[in-house]
């Protein structure tokens, strides 16, 4: 049995996709605008011939509100569409900054504790406690991210449906 996997089926394990189409950049952007106009009560966003950003309209706006970012590029004689599902780039950058900062601080405090023990000093008695606080903050950041992902799950499904209905019909198989 040979099961065919479409481009958008890979989204389940990775929130990125790339597909090729026979349409030009302008034609694809126009088709997206028409689809968006037909579903204007459900979706909002900006579309031009290079980039499209699609969001689901909701009555609330949380920090992890997902969006679909589409980049339309010309590759050789084909038009490539690259899509990324996820929160806004500002939110993504903020969470990566928190992970990076807390991780560096954890390594610093743990190194201070370790060096203190090696040289039998008592200058930094708080270093081990501070390293555990940093581990707790890393865990808290992770929980906040997972909570945001959980809250945005329904919008992610709507964005996936948007991508399937507006884009998959124009996919061109390249070998």
UniProtKB/TrEMBL annotation:
It comes from the Bacteria. Keywords: Membrane, Transmembrane, Transmembrane helix. The chain crosses the membrane at residues 91-114, 126-145. This is GTP-binding protein.
């Amino acid at each position: 049995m040979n099961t065919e996997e479409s481009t958008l089926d890979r989204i389940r394990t990775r929130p990125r996709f790339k597909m090729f189409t026979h349409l030009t950049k302008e034609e694809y952007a126009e088709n997206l605008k028409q689809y968006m106009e037909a579903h204007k009560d459900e979706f909002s966003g900006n579309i031009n011939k290079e980039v499209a950003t699609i969001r689901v309209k909701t009555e609330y706006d949380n920090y992890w509100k997902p969006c679909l970012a589409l980049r339309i590029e010309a590759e050789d004689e084909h038009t490539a569409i690259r899509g990324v599902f996820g929160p806004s780039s500002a939110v993504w950058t903020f969470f990566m900054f928190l992970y990076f900062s807390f991780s560096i601080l954890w390594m610093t405090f743990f190194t201070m504790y370790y060096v203190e023990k090696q040289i039998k000093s008592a200058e930094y008695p708080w270093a081990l406690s501070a390293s555990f606080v940093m581990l707790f903050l890393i865990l808290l950041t992770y929980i906040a991210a997972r909570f945001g992902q959980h809250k945005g799950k329904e919008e992610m499904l709507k964005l996936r449906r948007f991508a399937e209905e507006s884009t998959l019909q124009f996919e061109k198989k390249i070998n």
